[in-house]
Amino acid sequence: MTRSWWGWGTVEEAVTGAELEALLGRVRMLAPRDLTGHEPPDVSALGLLAPRVSAPTALADLCSADPADRAGHAHGKAFRDVVRNLHGDLRHVPDLVARPRRERDLVDLLDWCARDGIAAIPYGGGSSVVGGIEPRFDDDRAAVTIDLGRLDRVLEIDPVSRAARIQAGVFGPRLEDQLRPSGLTLRHFPQSFEFSTLGGWLATRAGGHYATLRTHIDDLVESMRVVTPSGINESRRLPGSGAGPSPDRLFLGSEGALGVITEAWMRLQERPRWRATASVHFADHAAAVAATRAVAQSGLHPANCRLLDSAEALVNAGVAVGGGVLILGFESADHPVGTSLDRAEELCRDHGGEIRAGAAGESTGDTWRSSFLRMPYQRDALARHSVIAETFETACTWDRYEDLHHAVTQAARVAVRKVTGQDGVVTCRFTHVYPDGPAPYFGVYAPGRWGSTVAQWDEIKAAVSEAITGNGGTITHHHAVGRDHRPWYDIQRPDPFAAALTAAKAALDPAGILNPGVLVPAP
Ligand SMILES: Cc1cc2nc3c(=O)[nH]c(=O)nc-3n(C[C@H](O)[C@H](O)[C@H](O)COP(=O)(O)OP(=O)(O)OC[C@H]3O[C@@H](n4cnc5c(N)ncnc54)[C@H](O)[C@@H]3O)c2cc1C
């Protein structure tokens, strides 16, 4: 398999043939426009500027100046990244890509960067969708991207406490492969699982597949080891601790701006043996939301509790339903879960839900699940045909959900019409639900204009970001802040906390080399 330099995943998995025809057929029905396909440029013909720095001799064999390597590490994997790659628009490319083999190499690389004023960008899988790994700064300093892919081993397993010491550069599948012989699993499955790393999950506070309880990677961390320019910070392995503010909390979500995570002790569990799933169809969206809230507040804690609105159900699961579909799933390694599902179904029936258990019910969930894994590939195919296809996400309390949903949907629709002159499709699903509120995740599909889709998307994104933060939502529930969410993060974040974070940055990274411009202004 060959990793795509410009888009998601592997070249071999790209959307072609009948799948592409079917996809474009659906878009044509939505709004006819020019759907000419555009080929990605040849990476060797991009004409990148030569690196502005060269590594000291002692570090030279860790560093690559290969143009394809540099281009492949320039952008994350958001729609705007993919489109810019398709246009060969690579203005901010790392000068070098460094691959430390051990922690000592990393310390030496950071020392060199601090000495020479070079930006150091920690890099896991590069699946950031918020400009988190792009060397885009206010000044024109040189940048070295530090790819942690060689630190990819499970170093130790403690079967008694059920935890493992794991290196940060390991990708999801290789991590699970190494745990499998022990019968244990981390069970953290973001949609990007295949092409993202443990370090990236920790640094962005990623959201996994659990819809309730352990939604974020935070809940699975026992302790972390972080290399900072001011020294190594390692927290103690503890099941819980009330000893002051948590050191791990400082580095969870630090997005490579405070230090480089090299290892973490992660909490594991046995693989589930009992599962029960169902799909519930609703004629009315408000009733579907009320049922989802009832389940979220019931204490049943389903592993899956994903409400698809009618547009999402139609676009991504092929189901025509008036109010939405709730996909429910329970799992346990210890006990049967049928009674939990029975009770959740009862709550849904109380709100007018119609249970589609068994073959029919499972097929809605199954269709949606396989579509879920194809979505990023299909997004790239649409991008090549000038279709705007992107997502954004948030969380809010239940009392504000209706207003937020209305405001955000309206803002997206108005912005789409303004920038494309046509109507698009706006979909919504809940990725996670809490007793006090949901995490709504929106999709926008609209016919764009080749050469303008990034500018068109940026205008839509600005409009929806205003609507989100203006209606009680967070600028991100699990996609992190990066460079693209900074304007709204700065508004959302309390001023004293911003001052404390800036002070922490100055203490840990006095030369201001780590991922400048992410989370706090570059010094
Ligand atoms: C198709 C698709 C689906 C996605 N699905 C999900 C999802 O379901 N849930 C979710 O939460 N996110 C999702 N994302 C976003 C992205 O996958 C996450 O943010 C992920 O956690 C990033 O991991 P990574 O290894 O790719 O990190 P990168 O993209 O390489 O880096 C992300 C940030 O973390 C920093 N960083 C990386 N490694 C380290 C380290 N070892 N130490 C310090 N800082 C580091 C980087 O500097 C950067 O700021 C998705 C993205 C795409 C493109």
UniProtKB/TrEMBL annotation:
Domain of life of the source: Bacteria
InterPro entries with a match to the protein in the record: Alkyl-DHAP_Synthase, FAD-bd_oxidored_4_C, FAD-bd_PCMH, FAD-bd_PCMH-like_sf, FAD-bd_PCMH_sub2, FAD-linked_Oxase-like_C, Oxid_FAD_bind_N
Keyword line: FAD, Flavoprotein
Residues covered by the FAD-binding PCMH-type domain: 90-271
Membership in a protein family: Belongs to the FAD-binding oxidoreductase/transferase type 4 family.
Protein name, as recorded: FAD-binding oxidoreductase
Organism: Streptomyces kurssanovii
